[in-house]
Amino acid sequence: MIKIHFFDWESPDLDIEGELDTDMDADVFLTQNIRGIRLDSTDNAADMENNTIYWFSSEDDEAKAAEIAAFLSARKRDGGRLHFTVTTETD
């Protein structure tokens, strides 16, 4: 599983789509731009609105996690408040 955790601990709300400059939901945006990933579920830490966790699966989680991290780093708005981690986890 690929875990993408978007967060902005300094803000009460998180605007992932605005920070990535897209009008699509973040999960749709990612699946359209990273071939071979499938959304499994979403979550958040501590039921707060300033973070969102997306769980994706793929045939090669390690390679796709690296591709996602590079893609998000390139898309992230300069000076934006969005932070993220991309990790892989086994069941």
Describe this structure in words.
It is a single chain. The chain has 91 residues and is of the alpha+beta class. Helices cover 30% and strands 27% of the residues. The protein contains three helices and four strands; from the N terminus they run βααββαβ. The chain has a four-stranded antiparallel sheet, covered by helices on one side. The longest helix is centred in the C-terminal third of the chain and has 15 residues, at 61-75. It starts with a strand and ends with a strand. The mean pLDDT is 92.
Give me the side-by-side strand order of the main sheet: 2-3-1-4
Number of helices: 3
Order of helices and strands: EHHEEHE
Return Rg in Å.
12 Å
**Share in helix:** 25-40%
Detail the poorly predicted runs: none
